[in-house]
Amino acid sequence: MDICKKSCTFAVQITKDVKMETICAIATAYGQSGIAVIRVSGEDAIRVTDGLFAGRRRLAETAGGQIVFGKIRRGDEVLDEVLASVFRAPHSYTGEDVVEISCHGSVYIQEKLLEWLIESGCRMARGGEFTQRAFLNGKMDLAQAEAVADLIAAQSKAEKDLALSQLRGSVSKEIEQLRERLLEFTSLIELELDFADHEELEFADRSELKALAEEISATLEKLTGSFKSGNAIRHGIPVAIAGAPNAGKSTLLNALLGEERAIVSDIQGTTRDTIEDSVTIDGILFRLTDTAGLRKTEDQLEQMGIARSQQAARKAQIILYVIGDWENEEMQLDETDIHGTIIRVYNKADLAHNAGIQPREGICISAKEGKIEPLKEELVRLSHEMIHPSGVMISNARHYEALLRALEAIRRVKEGLAEGLSGELLSMDLQDCLEALGEVTGRISSQEVLNTIFSKFCIGK
């Protein structure tokens, strides 16, 4: 099947499978609040809401993009005074008629209003259904829709900036540009297949295709290579706090978090298992892991803790090796298979300075006194090196997997061109690449994939 027709077939099938009834849900966080927003979307959104709304003018007579003050009432019962924002298709978030009702944040008012809307012909929206409709109605592609969920879940400025960039189409534009250029060549090669009886005909210039394949391959390598950085922004840069017993690792964890998260004791071996938490420093999210003290011991439980410490260090991008005894700073960490950056952190600086001891290369802090600013500055500096490459960045595992398949397919195209393979065989690999690229933006997506993606959204979005 022609790749263009295949894309359209999937899109049409998905639209048919989803019944576009009028839906409603609370768009703000559930619970008591100053203001709550109830969102209604669908062909009957304005009519249904109008039946419960009493204002200076009817919502049916209100132009899109306008807000009307009025009351929500049914019969003689007045539920609340509200503001109704009217959005008319296609100029709305979902691409349908939408009414957003801003009411007082009483749980009773919110639930009663939903009840009245449902009794008037709406149904409760499923998780992510508003955004799913935005995708199906062409308001955004699938990569942008997923960025909406990432933006809502953002825990740091860097994560917010990345999600906002993807929502604005940074990834989508890059993918679509590659796809459109590749589609042109694929169409020419398929045209050659239609004239298979005339072997001398060659519509697709092989030298131009080779140059394009090289360019696409380089772009895909750059995009897939950005996933490590994008994933670190999305989930936080993993940081392991390691060192000998009583070096002050748990005290440092508490100082970084600004709270007493870990038990601090002079007794060696107090921390026998890893303790994990996260902190945002200068807009960057760090996932901290406090580990058991590294030393030789016969205690089996402590040995298990030390093994987990080594495992945490192997997974971390940054290892803070805390040194409490400045005169005996021999590193106990096994650096085998450790690929992260190791920072020597000289703790208890107040005691060492009083004793006239000078550290070697590293950062001096006093975790007990909360004097850790130099360490924070170094963490931020390293993070900028790790997660701020130039250009477009991907952070979604689904996108990463699809782009890896696209990269493998375009590599087969390059090999096929070098070996002088027929247009029919080249076409198969080109279509594999196009399909993989199309999965990122949702040009080619199964209903099962869409259901899985949007089921992770909160209801009301």
Structure description:
By secondary structure, the protein is an alpha/beta fold. Helices cover 47% and strands 18% of the residues. The strands form two sheets. Strands 3-4-5-6-2-1-7 form a seven-stranded mixed beta sheet. The chain has a six-stranded mixed beta sheet with strand order 9-10-8-11-12-13, with helices on both faces. Strand 1 (23-26) and strand 2 (33-41) form a beta hairpin. Helix 7 (170-194) packs antiparallel against helix 8. The longest helix is centred in the middle third of the chain and has 25 residues, at 170-194. The protein is flat. The chain starts with a helix and ends in a 7-residue tail after the last helix.
Topology pattern, helix = H, strand = E: HEEHEEEEHEHHHHHHEHEEHEEHEHHHH
The number of helical segments is: 16
- The amount of helix comes to 40-55%
Shape annotation: flat
Average predicted confidence as pLDDT: 83
N-end to C-end Cα span: 35 Å
Sheet having the most strands: 7 strands, mixed
Task: Indicate the topology.
Layout: H1 3-17, E1 23-26, E2 33-41, H2 45-50, E3 53-55, E4 66-74, E5 77-87, E6 98-105, H3 107-119, E7 123-124, H4 129-136, H5 142-153, H6 157-167, H7 170-194, H8 206-225, H9 227-235, E8 237-243, H10 249-257, E9 275-281, E10 284-290, H11 300-315, E11 318-323, E12 341-346, H12 349-354, E13 363-364, H13 373-387, H14 397-419, H15 423-441, H16 447-454
Parallel strand pairs: 1-7, 8-10, 8-11, 11-12, 12-13
Antiparallel strand pairs: 1-2, 2-6, 3-4, 4-5, 5-6, 9-10
Helix pairs in contact: 5-6, 7-8, 7-15, 8-14, 14-15
